[in-house]
Design goal:
The chain is an alpha+beta fold. Helix content is 45%, strand content 11%.
Length: 262
């Protein structure tokens, strides 16, 4: 006997997103300017929402573009948002902009990361971070979180590993909460099983939590700033961001300038 899998309906998916965001039907209806009765009918399957209604509710539920396409498919509509590879001609302007930002950030490290923290591009300043990492962690696709927290990656050289681990895992948990992505959940299970604890109290003199990484006999101290495209209508672009690292002190700035220039 062959088992069958029941595919989720658009109503059940919308209800799950609403509950994930901690909203009642009434709160969602007020935010989206629709009746609570209609929201209820959509969730229970008594009404089939139009593509425009799905989009309206998805916007107010902060549903990412990938998952908006899934909502449309569940309702029997075609996906609205394209998903091109980063090297596709349609994305050339954006990919060129990312490359310009990577190059302009030299002599400091910067990477282009996707939704799962896989490295899609990086500038040459990142080479200084990778010395001593196991070869298998550097085989594409390189995952930035795995590379950082793996015991054969950067982790043994991070002086404040507990702080940095807590910072990275909290970012990962936040993205899981936003996307409900099973691949991210699996990544969290993997990383949280690595040796180390989420501990460490921030130094009272710090205004950000830096990553303090030993490079030879010296310690490099950097903090990150993330940037993304705010007006994306393509799934690939919507899921990309640049992680740019800046020196947290003048000694680190000198080290990075010497590491690239010398």
């Amino acid at each position: 006997m062959t088992g069958t899998t029941t595919r989720p309906t658009v109503g059940s998916l919308l209800r799950a997103w609403r509950e994930r965001r901690g909203l009642s039907q009434l709160q969602l209806s007020l935010d989206a300017a629709v009746s609570a009765r209609h929201v209820s009918f959509v969730e229970t399957g008594r009404a089939t929402p139009t593509p425009a209604m799905i989009e309206r509710l998805a916007v107010h539920l902060d549903v990412p573009l990938r998952e908006r396409n899934q909502l449309l498919l569940a309702a029997g509509y075609a996906p609205h948002y394209g998903e091109h590879p980063l090297d596709a001609p349609a994305l050339r302007a954006v990919s060129d902009a990312f490359r310009t930002l990577l190059d302009a950030h030299l002599p400091y490290p910067a990477l282009v990361l996707d939704r799962w923290w896989d490295v899609l591009d990086r500038n040459r300043a990142t080479d200084i971070l990778l010395d001593g990492c196991a070869e298998h962690l550097l085989e594409p696709p390189v995952n930035a979180l795995r590379l950082t927290l793996h015991p054969q990656g950067l982790a043994p050289r991070i002086d404040n590993l507990g702080q940095w681990r807590r910072h990275l895992l909290s970012q990962l948990r936040a993205r899981i909460d936003r996307t409900d992505d099973p691949r991210l959940r699996e990544l969290y299970r993997e990383l949280s099983g690595y040796p180390g604890a989420e501990d460490g109290v921030a130094d009272a003199a710090d205004v950000v939590v830096p990553m303090r990484l030993r490079i030879g006999a010296q310690t490099l101290s950097v903090f990150g700033i993330a940037a993304s495209v705010l007006s994306a209508t393509d799934v690939t672009i919507d899921e990309l961001h640049i992680e740019a690292f800046y020196p947290a002190d003048e000694r680190t700035a000198r080290m990075l300038r010497a590491g690239v220039g010398g």
